[in-house]
């Protein structure tokens, strides 16, 4: 899969034949990264106009902590669009992920209070409500595509932000398609040309409404924020909201979809988690490490430099593979074994450095409620492996588009017309 050559005409080396978005890589990303990591943990690939691929834990760790050399800012190297993915994808400017320190800090300061553990603890009921409702929708039938339940992170994010709930599926599919669909396909074009422009108008409309008439939601909080002693503009609020949507919609879904399929194949572990719910927190850290829902993200080199013996040039694009770092035997013993009690677990699934995931606590909380209710309420679920459908490519997010499953039917826990966590409180207690 990888074949190392000596050098390119521009002096970049070692050169490998590697493309994280290729069908070849998607067949077995773990094996593909394992080979690359062993041969050349820092290497140059000619795919996508050329990029460095960092696959060892050490290079990923070093580069993600050196924002002066490895920038997240939007630029025109390697095309136009979101700069933290390779190839770039057409997306609006995002704050704070596309801003380097020191400017970055004042923006991240606005996001931190709404994603801190205390704020996420206050969302417990809303997360529980949607998980209960989504499982209620299928529990009496005895069969379902489990991805329908895994829509929860999208609806929670839309509700939390204060966007119209009736559009949650459109937000989910459009933001998902941007990172998992193949450019040029109908799915990608529908997202980029139709759904996302429409949703941008909806989001901007809500931002304007909340500025005039604030409510108890995240958009109202953001329009009330200040930076540099001035009010945050509507464009800046949009840049933060659009990032929270793209962070919130697909990643937790990817984590849970991978875990649900794996737990079908490892029923002893499923039973262990059923008998010992206290093991779930550490198990989730291990699922994050093992599956790495965001496989890798990109940076751009700001100045000619030598990095771990490799000559990098200003403007070079660099992919930091969180997924590969998470399987590096230098840091993890038996990295290809999934051990739900692994501890400590210094995984890189949420990134490293200043841009480390702002939504980590929310992602964990949603994954925990989903997995807990799935294994308790659908304890004997069986996945039909022959009908599983993978994401079209595994370059940025990995997971399953379709997970057909059967299970013993069970009772609903909420009335069919339940609309809010208040219904949950009356029905469950
Ligand atoms: C399992 C779930 C998740 C995974 C695996 C994940 C992964 C990541 C990774 C790897 C980064 C680092 C970006 C970089 O270094 O360039 C990141 C950043 C970010 N994530 Fe997440 N994420 C998850 C859930 C969420 C959720 C639920 C939200 C919000 C609702 C969110 C919002 C963000 C934001 C705003 C950033 C940018 C932080 C910054 O630039 O300072 N993420 N995420």
TrEMBL record:
Residues 410-429 are annotated as: Disordered. Keywords: Heme, Iron, Metal-binding, Monooxygenase, Oxidoreductase. One of its GO terms (molecular function) is heme binding. It comes from the Bacteria. It holds the Pfam family p450. InterPro entries: Cyt_P450, Cyt_P450_B, Cyt_P450_CS, Cyt_P450_sf. Belongs to the cytochrome P450 family. This is Cytochrome P450.
């Amino acid at each position: 899969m990888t074949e190392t050559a000596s050098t390119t005409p521009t002096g970049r080396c070692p050169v490998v034949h590697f493309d994280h978005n290729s069908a070849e890589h998607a067949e077995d990303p773990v094996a593909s990264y394992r080979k690359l990591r062993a041969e050349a943990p820092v290497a140059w690939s000619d795919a996508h106009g050329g990029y460095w691929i960092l696959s060892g834990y050490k290079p990923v760790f070093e580069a993600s902590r050196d924002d002066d050399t490895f920038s997240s800012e939007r630029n025109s190297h390697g095309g136009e669009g979101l700069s933290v993915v390779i190839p770039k994808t057409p997306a609006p400017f995002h704050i704070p992920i596309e801003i380097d320190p020191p400017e970055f800090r004042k923006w991240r300061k606005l996001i931190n209070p709404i994603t801190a553990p205390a704020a996420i603890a206050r969302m417990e009921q809303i997360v529980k409500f949607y998980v209960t409702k989504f499982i209620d929708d299928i529990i009496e039938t005895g069969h379902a595509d489990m991805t329908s339940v895994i829509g929860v992170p999208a609806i929670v994010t839309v509700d939390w932000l204060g966007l119209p709930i009736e559009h949650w599926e459109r937000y989910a599919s459009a933001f998902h398609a941007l990172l998992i669909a193949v450019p040029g396909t109908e799915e990608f074009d529908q997202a980029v040309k139709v759904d996302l422009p429409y949703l941008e108008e909806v989001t901007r409309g809500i931002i304007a409404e909340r500025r005039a008439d604030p409510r108890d939601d995240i958009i109202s909080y953001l329009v009330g924020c200040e930076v540099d002693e001035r009010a945050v503009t509507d464009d800046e609020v949009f840049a933060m909201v659009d990032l929270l949507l793209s962070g919130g919609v697909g990643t937790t879904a990817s984590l849970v979809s991978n875990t649900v399929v794996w737990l079908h194949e490892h029923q002893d572990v499923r039973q262990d988690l059923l008998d010992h719910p206290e093991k779930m927190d550490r198990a989730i850290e291990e699922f994050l490490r093992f599956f790495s829902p965001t496989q890798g993200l990109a940076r751009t080199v700001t100045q000619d430099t030598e990095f771990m013996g490799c000559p990098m040039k200003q403007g070079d694009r660099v992919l930091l593979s969180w997924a590969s770092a998470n399987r590096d035997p230098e840091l993890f013993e038996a990295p290809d074994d999934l051990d739900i009690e692994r501890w400590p677990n210094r995984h890189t699934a949420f990134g490293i450095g200043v841009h480390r995931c702002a939504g980590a606590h929310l992602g964990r909380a949603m994954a925990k409620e989903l997995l807990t209710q799935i294994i308790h309420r659908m304890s004997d679920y069986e996945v039909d492996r022959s009908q599983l459908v993978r994401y079209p490519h595994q370059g940025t997010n990995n997971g399953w588009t379709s997970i057909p499953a059967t299970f013993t039917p069970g009772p609903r826990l909420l009335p069919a017309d339940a609309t809010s966590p208040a219904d949950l409180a009356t029905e469950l207690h």
